[in-house]
Design goal:
Strand order of the largest sheet: 6-7-8-3-9-10
Helix content: 25-40%
Structural class: alpha/beta
Shape: globular
Order of helices and strands: EEEHEEHEHHHEHEHEEHH
Radius of gyration: 18 Å
Length: 261
Amino acid sequence: MIGRNRNPHAGEPQPLAGAPAVEIRGLGKWFGAFKVLDGIDLLIGRGERLVICGPSGSGKSTLIRSINGLEGFQEGEVLVDGIRLTRESKTVQAVRRRVGMVFQQFNLFPHLTVLENCSIALRLVQGMAAKDADERSLHYLRKVHIPEQAGKFASQLSGGQQQRVAVARALAMEPDIMLFDEPTSSLDPEMVKEVLDTMVQLAGEGMTMAVVTHEMGFARQVADRVIFMDRGKIVEQATPQAFFSNPQAERARAFLQQILH
């Protein structure tokens, strides 16, 4: 990879060799009296492509946002590369250096160019020289097939292009794990394919991925494992073939009947 800085950051916990990419044990979280995550146990192996699906309000987004500390939790523990996530800032930063995330909204700076959107964190967070940050950012803009847009302002791009910039921005930090929180849900239908194609390409390159999505075609094509959540619990997990052909949980069968027909 281009210009990757592997120097450890002072005082940060370091990854544990041989640990799973993500390990979640007994995770519980409340919003007031509502328990949004209820006893979640989950392992994500290195290079695994995990799709998380389920009805609205089932806890999908909260679960993956818990992996990089965007959501706190009251029970259980989360480990990323063997690093136990706590509320200490050094631990949170150590985890976030290993986890990239793409959201429903693009969250780009409209007053910055595409290249600046990708390179700003490299300069400010990783301390890279501007030339090196731009070089790495262009590398990842090529990977998502929009290097020609580097000089445009983010607000000049289509929704699909902006989301691909968001993917490139996350990749430029060169994470070990990528999280996607319904990355196509805010796109017009004709723009969905270009973002999914980018994600399919990443999956083919062996990136560890956890994807919250209702795009069941993507799940069939890419996932190693599909997890179905309902009411804050993992109700079913299986290979795509088993999940789509013969779901075991009644709630999963009802969900698939709704979205596939």
